[in-house]
Fold each of these.
Amino acid sequence: MKKHIFRWVILLAIGFGVGSAIGYFQSKDEVDSETITASTGNKAATIIKQPKKASSLMSIEGKFSLTDHEGQAVTQDTYAGNYKLIFFGFTYCPAICPAELQKITLIMGELEDLSEKVTPLFITIDPERDNVAAMNSYVTQFHEKLVGLTGSIKQIEDVKKSFKVYASKVENEMMDEYMMDHSSFMYLMSPENKLIALYPSKDGAIKIAEEVKKLITE
């Protein structure tokens, strides 16, 4: 029992340590504090942070070919016509991921009827452990519309590249399980699958919901 408690203390410490590293992309596509205007059609939002390489975020394709938490093969076209609110994480995450998924749950609640136009997606960066059953058990603890997506190691590597996501294993001999260090942004994609906004973890649910409402209703 003591070993088990000690292990989770270590996991939590690493989890919060990961939080301090959020925003670091291994590909050096770091995000600074400037904002730029991103447009889709006549809609604009001043909520995307300017990357050091300006073309980096704009080159996000948002493509994927994965399996949902019910075992169905899906692609970005499966959700065509809807806005997509996407977060990358893993089910063993002790702090950041459940907090962000709870934030998505709050956002969907704040959107009220407009939530019908938004599909929230949780994409794993840990396909070795996050199979369909694990994703199903996990995402059903949050919003009823939340879709969990997993796939083969190659499929997850491909989607990470598509969205410019940083993720790597963190192993420690004091732990029974490895952790994942990863960037922690929430992506808002348009119905045409274009990046509209990128929200850092410091952005609150109400702020994000208000901005999403404006984008949907303009």
Note: Residues 2-217 form a domain with the Glutaredoxin fold (CATH 3.40.30.10).
Amino acid sequence: MKPPERPARPVIPIAPSTDTSPIAPPPGASAALVSLYAAHQKIYPRSVSGLFSRLRWYMVFFTQLLFYGLPWLHWGERQAVLFDLAARRFYIFKLVLYPQDFIYLAGLLVICALSLFLFTAVAGRLWCGYACPQTVYTEIFMWIERHTEGDRSAHMRRDQASWTVEKFGRKAAKQALWIAVGWWTGFTFVGYFTPIHVLAGEIAQFSLGSWEVFWVFFYGFATYGNAGYMREQVCKHMCPYARFQSAMFDKDTLIVSYDAARGEPRGARSKKVDLASSELGACVDCSLCVQVCPTGIDIRNGLQYECIGCGACADVCDEVMDKMHYPRGLVKYSTENAMHNQWGAAEIVHHVFRPRVMLYTTVVWTIIAIVGISLLARAPFKVDVERDRKSLARELAGGVIENVFRLQIMNVTEAELRVHVQVDGLPGLKVVTDEDLTVAPAQSRWFVLRLQLPPGQATPGSHPIHFEIDGQDDTTVLKEKAVFVVPH
């Protein structure tokens, strides 16, 4: 049975409004501007000491000793580590790499990426918390800030107070030291591409090139801005690693964790209160874990993407537990499974060596072995053969056929290279130019080779031949294919 149709509603036309005045608030209410974005709150990290703080400073010293010290080391007559872009040569101690060795750079990048995956799967953001340049330079800049403007409370009071001579002097000293560190960092960075002794001389004589000036100040300003002002904003908003790190975490990944089962319910209390007889957990709600965090998060709210795994909250919480005479480890490095199942250290370590970690480890070491063996077995010179573009082939007096080739030899060592060139593939084919060639250390040189074939030794057309280049100072022999053309 068909249901009865509903009567159609009458359509009442509405004339468009011509009133374009803004909507007024209700009587008695005041207009307020509502922002869609939260205002940035400056973070004043509190200084902290402890195991993880010491480890972080050890990494600061180690990484900066490498960065600032390597350009000043010498290897023979040159800088030990130098990326000479103008000459297209990269010097890394004994190694001399050319653009043709780009495969080694690709291998290095793959090793770094997989190592990052491995470390993250094992212990979270270890790179971010201890070795990332942003973390390292932020730690250095905060150390300068604490020694010029005081610790957290003094710094906050000084920022809120009116300007005085003392305040201006302290902030000026901080800015001067920040600029000095930033400038020296930019100078050192450019020193990896321009010999640093030459660069220092050019600065002393005010003869620095325009590109060198640009990169010294660009890298110095980036260090000054990122480590001095942007700090945690780089980690939270600019670094992509914080966003995709969760894809590499699992329930057996070591992360900075708060033991809620032991700490809750939190609350302040006297040292004399017996924890066992009270209704409170071990957390005294002192908020020191928030005050020491460089990104300003509360670890008690669980794992957050802003956490860089530096362990500062674990250090300060252990200090509080010592003062309260409670066991340490309310905030510690642990895993989700360990916190849920109350595992001990032995069970945590056992679950570290899981299939995912072993796979990453195997792949990383396999690639390291391949790259290392390839570098050790690398020939001391490289050869490239090209035909002379001016003439394909020509016939000389007496019916002799001549082809001209251009031979490029790259010496990848820092000793003079002597090679002997010979050719085979056709009977009677010989090199009529000099067969013994010399290339200077770490240089690339082109040679013109004229090959002649007696008459009647080959039919008209193209014939495959081989150049055999013999290193006279070792057993290296390289062969290159080419084509000898006999004209019709």
Note: The chain has two domains: 41-378, 381-486.
